[in-house]
Design a protein that fits this description.
Layout (H helix, E strand, L loop, with lengths): L1 E9 L1 H12 L7 E5 L6 H13 L14 E5 L5 E6 L8 H5 L1 H7 L1 E5 L11 E8 L2 E11 L1 H4 L5 H10 L6 E5 L7 E7 L2 E7 L6 H11 L8 E5 L4 E5 L6 H7 L4 H16 L8 E2 L2 H18 L9 H12 L6 E3 L8 E2 L7 E2 L6 E3 L2 H8 L8 H15 L3 H28 L10 H12 L5 H7 L7 H9 L1
Parallel strand pairs: 2-5, 2-6, 4-5, 13-17
Antiparallel strand pairs: 1-7, 3-4, 6-7, 8-9, 9-10, 10-12, 11-12, 14-17, 15-16
Helix pairs in contact: 1-2, 1-6, 9-13, 10-11, 10-14, 11-14, 12-14, 14-15
GO molecular function: ATP binding; metal ion binding; transferase activity
Keywords: ATP-binding, Cytoplasm, Magnesium, Metal-binding, Nucleotide-binding, Transferase, tRNA processing
Family: Belongs to the TsaE family.
């Protein structure tokens, strides 16, 4: 057994908080061996865990000292077994209790596990009262690194939540983004917050951009508490009304929503970019678009095609865009990363990779969305709206917009191909025809004739071509 993490000292509230955190991540087939002397808090931990899993339907959770086993069910239908083996007379009784099957199909919490014989790769949670402070305990997590290594994060999460005054909150996993970060919603009565769990030491850029945006009245989520060394942030909850969901549910709001998106960019671009963001200039745009030539042509039967595209992007950027002062670009500015708040300003998500870039970059990102159709008239209206608000040279802006559209979308084609072939994630291939159509519209701009020629002979992502990529 490997010692994975320690929580020391922990009072009753922090112990319960750890149980609630653990309740958010365990799944059927997970077995927790609760070890410690009488009065160490094993039942307190189990009770907090079970009630967190049950949420609003939480039952009383008595100690199973005399019944040996109590079973519960959460709202998703997951069975939770709470066993106390202190009075077990022989390990064979586990079969009579059904515990041998439960450890394969349910979440199982076992007090006094040593009375029942070997368990199938459990997470061992030890509770040891501190000699001079009987109300405090030392909690240890131990188990195989391969199976339980991710649990080492949980005590740090519990410590942050407890310190921030959210120890009574129930945690609910949220859908994450394409990165390794994960998110939880904390619900405590009428209030809620969001926990970001990122890799240790990787939140500095997020915190810096949050402060920069909020100081300019742009609504990034407020940071409520942080442990940046551990990569943990407790954030204001902006709600579930992603612009993408609102557009799907209420398409009649599209003109108003896209107006607000464009106006947000106008406001953002009214401030010089911070000095801590990296430039996304011609050479870097050329480097990034190299993903297209590296993956897509060979995957669709045109190996060697497209190798000149990166150089053309850099040359055209110098000609069409380099003379314009860069602005702050959020990079992933689209309907999945914006929160509709009706009369309040749009909420902004996923901005830690901000760059200094040409003003058209984020407008392209929002209007040429790989995940959803944007009406061509909406795109044209918003380009015109941005030009009118910022007084940029319309002809040059449209040329730069088309160039950055080609660059961004070709890179996306490369990424989607790589995700399918290298990472076994083919679901993004369904977006390829929409992305390719945007590329064709962009290269039709007279200033991009050389790029159009460079794409000649590279097959479009027809259903047959997509099937070929998926099979490779």
């Amino acid at each position: 057994m490997t010692l994975l993490a320690t929580l020391d000292p922990a009072d009753a509230d922090l112990t319960a908080c750890l149980a609630r955190v653990m309740a958010a991540v365990l799944k059927p087939g997970d077995v927790i061996a609760l070890e410690g002397p009488v009065g160490a808090g094993k039942t307190h931990f189990a009770r907090s865990f079970i009630r967190a899993r049950q949420g609003d339907l939480a039952e009383d959770v008595p100690s199973p000292t005399f019944t040996l086993v109590q079973t519960y069910e959460d709202p998703l239908g997951t069975e939770i077994w709470h066993a106390d083996l202190y009075r077990l007379t022989h390990p064979d009784e586990l079969v009579e209790l059904g515990l041998d099957e439960a450890v394969r199909e349910a979440i199982v919490l076992i007090e006094w596990p040593d009375h029942g014989g070997p368990l199938p790769d459990p997470l061992k949670l030890g509770l040891e009262p501190l000699a001079d402070f009987p109300d405090l305990r030392r909690i240890t997590l131990g188990g195989s690194e391969l199976r339980w290594g991710a649990m080492a994060r949980l005590p740090a999460i519990a410590r942050l939540i407890h310190r921030a005054g959210w120890s009574e909150a129930r945690l609910i996993p949220l859908a994450g983004d394409a990165s390794s970060r994960r998110y939880f919603r904390l619900i405590d009565g009428e209030r809620s917050a969001v926990l970001m769990d990122a890799a240790p030491g990787t939140t500095d850029s997020y915190v810096a951009m949050t402060q920069w945006l909020r100081n300019r009245d742009l609504h990034a989520p407020k940071i409520l508490a942080a442990d940046q060394a551990e990569g943990l942030l407790l954030l204001e909850d902006l709600g579930d009304d992603l612009v993408a969901r609102v557009l799907e549910a209420e398409p009649e709001l599209a003109p108003r929503i896209y107006d607000r998106m464009t106006d947000l960019l106008v406001a953002l671009h009214g401030h010089p970019p911070p000095d801590f963001v990296l430039p996304l200039d011609g050479p870097e745009l050329a480097r990034q678009v190299g993903l297209f030539a590296e993956y897509y042509p060979a995957a669709v039967g045109a190996p060697g095609k497209g190798t000149e595209i990166a150089g053309l992007i850099e040359t055209l950027h110098a000609k069409l865009a380099e003379d314009v002062p860069p602005v702050t670009g959020l990079r992933d500015f689209h309907a999945e990363n914006l929160i509709w708040r009706d009369g309040d300003p749009l909420g902004i998500l996923d901005f830690q990779d901000a760059v200094a870039v040409h003003p058209a970059y984020d407008l392209v990102s929002g209007l040429q969305d790989a995940r959803r159709e944007v009406d061509p008239m909406t795109e044209e209206t918003q380009i015109a709206r941005y030009i009118a608000a910022t007084h940029v040279d319309a002809e040059r802006f449209r040329a730069a917009y088309a160039l950055l559209g080609v660059q961004r979308n070709l890179r996306i084609m490369g990424i989607f191909t790589r995700l399918a072939q290298r990472d076994g994630k083919p679901r993004y291939l369904a977006f390829m025809p929409r992305v390719w159509d945007a590329i064709q519209r962009d290269v039709s701009h007279p200033a991009l004739a050389a790029l159009a020629a460079a794409l000649d002979g590279i097959p479009a992502p027809s259903p047959e071509v997509i099937e070929r990529i998926a099979r490779a």
